[in-house]
Design goal:
2 copies of one chain form a homodimer. Chain A is about 50% helix and about 20% strand. The first copy, chain A, is globular. Chain A is an alpha+beta fold. Chain A has helices spanning about 1-10, 15-25, 80-85, 105-115, 120-145, 145-155, 160-165, 165-175, 180-185, and strands at about 25-30, 35-40, 45-50, 55-60, 65-70, 75-80, 95, 100-105. The structure holds a DNA duplex (30 and 30 nucleotides).
Chain lengths: ~190, ~190
DNA sequence: GTTCTTTCTTAAACTAGCTTAAGTTTTTTC
DNA sequence: GAAAAAACTTAAGCTAGTTTAAGAAAGAAC
């Protein structure tokens, strides 16, 4: 839980007692590689924080193929937000790519946390704003660059991350076929 | 300003005095069709709320063509969030498509507002979560559907909105050429 | 250390969506 | 209400990225 506490304290203040209260309302779990935190059709009950490891979010498209829309590394929050905030059926799967340690903030406990620790409103406002800002930029890249350019951009921005995932997952995230990715690498 | 007040009161409580304080920290402006609220390279100084009218956000791509990434209708917030929260150079333009009435929450005043009216943290957390949730779904559509399917989906979801904008703007938003959109309509 | 499974590569045929270019229709301006 | 500007259409040729299919390499499991 230490990563999260440190992360929160960068943005708002938390007393010892408050930290304890927070900790007691957040579960920490180990998720094995390939294990699911969420499956399509279920209701997304929690917001997940990656303490250690790597998660992916994907859906199964019309052709039955997995389409990855997001990864989550250490210190990132991940959730199917539409399902989480509306408590409706999820459209996505969330699965561990590596054995991971994940913090689980359940929906009903989050409400309680906001009541007791109002400064968390600010923390989550800032986190969501950042995520949203990142997503605006990601749309820009989607529109602006060809698949090939997007691939080269991704590799140059996150060279270490590329080592950590199989190529077919990168292809899926970039919205191209593994065959085409293979061709791009050859060039 | 009434639309915004009503909108906020759906999510948090505001006393008379608080409403007054809020109003005094938010500017209301008229923006004429084609007028800019933000241009690329400037720092995005405000978060904009559409009381009436229609805005678009776009950037100029490598080929010199305008690429629309978002529209904002009545009761929507719009901003280049990366520029707004980091106070760095904007990558986008924000421009009025129709004569509009827009509320302007400036960056430095927002800080003050959060201090005086902490319940606004909650309001903006909820708004940003919604925007982010919508953007996760939009990525899904981007990955899942062909351009043609995306066009048909958009028309079926927002038939009235389609009437309100020129076709070339819809084409731009969908990431296709106006020529191709014209072909799709014919089918 | 052999077998099974998962991941990656190569290459040829194919298609969704783009480019170019010219013409038509609609909207704006004076 | 005529002229200019902006928006839309049509069609032919083109290209980025897909599909299909088969084989090679690497990792995991026993």
């Amino acid at each position: 839980m230490q990563n999260l506490i440190t992360h929160i304290k960068k943005h708002v203040t938390l007393s010892e007692a408050e930290t304890k209260f927070l900790s007691s309302n957040i579960k920490s779990i180990h998720v094995k590689k390939k294990e699911f935190l969420l499956q399509e059709g279920n209701i997304c009950k929690a917001n997940y924080f990656v303490e250690k490891g790597l998660l992916r979010m994907f859906f199964i498209n019309e052709k039955g193929v997995e389409q990855i829309t997001q990864f989550a590394l250490e210190n990132w929050w991940l959730s199917d937000y539409m399902s989480f905030i509306m408590q409706t059926e999820a459209k996505f799967y969330i699965q561990a790519i590596e054995n991971s340690e994940v913090l689980v903030v359940e929906h009903h406990k989050q409400e309680e946390l906001f009541k007791q620790l109002p400064q968390l409103e600010k923390y989550f406002r800032i986190m969501t704003q950042r995520a949203y800002a990142a997503s605006q930029m990601r749309f820009k890249y989607f529109y602006d660059y060809s698949k090939e350019e997007n691939y080269r951009l991704f590799v140059s921005l996150f060279p270490k991350f590329v080592q950590r995932i199989p190529q077919y997952m990168l292809a899926s995230y970039l919205g191209i076929t593994p065959e085409y990715l293979s061709e791009l690498r050859k060039r």
